[in-house]
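Entry for the shared binder. Reason: the reviewer on the internal report wants the predicted structure included alongside the sequence.
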Amino acid sequence: MELLKRLYAKFRHLILYGIIGSFTASLDFLVFTLLTRVLDINYLVANCISVLVGITTSFYLNRNYNFKVNDKTAQRFSIFLAVGLTGLLMSNLILWVGVEKMHLNESITKLASIVLVVFFQFLFNKFITFRVKDDTSLKQNH
């Protein structure tokens, strides 16, 4: 039990990011599917909309429940959005290559793009977007 507590403490952010990411990726996929299958919207347009829904939801949940950082909200959201939009570009590229060049199913290609983009976004958001300056390091240097 102690080992589990230590592992959770060490990987807490990654675990919560994974849980939140799973939820927001599911939301992204659901919105994408509704837009493409029900409303017959072009898959790239639908991807832009669904990813933006996911980005906004993910920021709110990560800020409040994972990283618990409530300062500089506009600045942090701007960075988070930039990371998310970079992920969107990556996702659109993966979708375009998968659907147009490799003739793969849109839904399967969308799932693959989510998996590939999430890892990049976690690292950037953990170490840049939600980074908190360590006051103890400042005290040691002065």
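Summary line for the report: The helical segments are 2-38, 43-66, 73-101, 106-129, 135-141.
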